[in-house]
Specification:
Number of strands: 0
Largest sheet: none
Distance between the termini: 47 Å
Radius of gyration: 25 Å
Shape: rod-shaped
Length: about 100
Amino acid sequence: MKDNRNVYESLVLIMQFGINMIVPIVMCTAFGVWVGGKTGWKFLAVPLFLIGALAGMRNCYMIVKRMIDREKSKEGSREIASSIAAQAKREDRRNVKKN
């Protein structure tokens, strides 16, 4: 069951990257085409496409950064828990030696 969860999480992550890239690109390009049709500046779709691509890349970067921070916090909590456990063991040893 644990393996299936990892597979599902990976699929969701891939879909999230795709959506976070496609949505800004499509929206900016559509806006550029619409504004170009209204004003006669047809070339406006190209820079807005590039802006959408940059926005999509930024979205993906933020997702990866958040994932890395979450993994670091998990590692940190593991280290804290293991240090607390080690300290408790030392105190137990001291108490056993005293008694």
